[in-house]
Write a structure and sequence with these properties.
The protein is α+β, with helices and mostly antiparallel strands. The protein is built from 5 helices and 2 strands; from the N terminus they run E-H-H-H-H-H-E. The chain is elongated. The two termini are about 25 Å apart.
């Protein structure tokens, strides 16, 4: 094995990086009573989640979709996270602070009650639980993914 400039031995292997560009379809459905009916079945106490919880998330989703730049950032995070899971990457998962900051930018322009609700959820560390229907409303079609480009970088 040849010595490297640092004096360490290395195997006779060449390592290159390939960049693969995929195109995937992302489907986003509105949060409706029908689409989330399973979340509202009565529990043992006869209670359940109030429909207002879903309506609030739908308003947040619609506010996100009205902003092209923020929705593009969010969908890129979703697609990247999904691809990381498929590849069993070490870099799985969105940076929660990054997502939290994106949501702050989105809900800051909503009605006063919604802003107060989402800010309190973020402060209390439960924002994720209060946007779960949004994540369920988004589906990435990995089976239909097409390779657009492959090149060595």
């Amino acid at each position: 094995m040849p010595d490297t400039p640092t004096g360490k031995e290395t195997p006779d292997v060449v390592e290159k990086t390939c960049r693969v560009v995929l195109e995937v379809t992302v489907r986003i459905r509105q949060i409706t009573r029908e689409s989330v009916a399973g979340h509202f079945t009565a529990d043992e106490s006869g209670g359940g989640l109030p429909w207002e919880w879903a309506e609030r998330q739908n308003r947040l989703l619609l506010a996100l979709l009205k902003d092209e730049e923020k929705s593009a950032r969010f969908l890129a995070m979703i697609a990247g996270d999904g691809l990381g899971l498929l590849l069993e990457s070490e870099h799985v998962g969105m940076v929660s602070d990054e997502e939290d900051e994106l949501w702050e930018e989105v809900y800051a322009g909503m009605g006063r009650e919604d802003v107060a609700f989402f800010r309190a959820a973020r402060r209390d560390g439960i924002l994720g639980e209060n946007i779960e229907l949004i994540h369920e409303a988004i589906a990435v079609d990995w089976k239909g993914a097409e390779i657009e480009e492959v090149r060595v970088v």
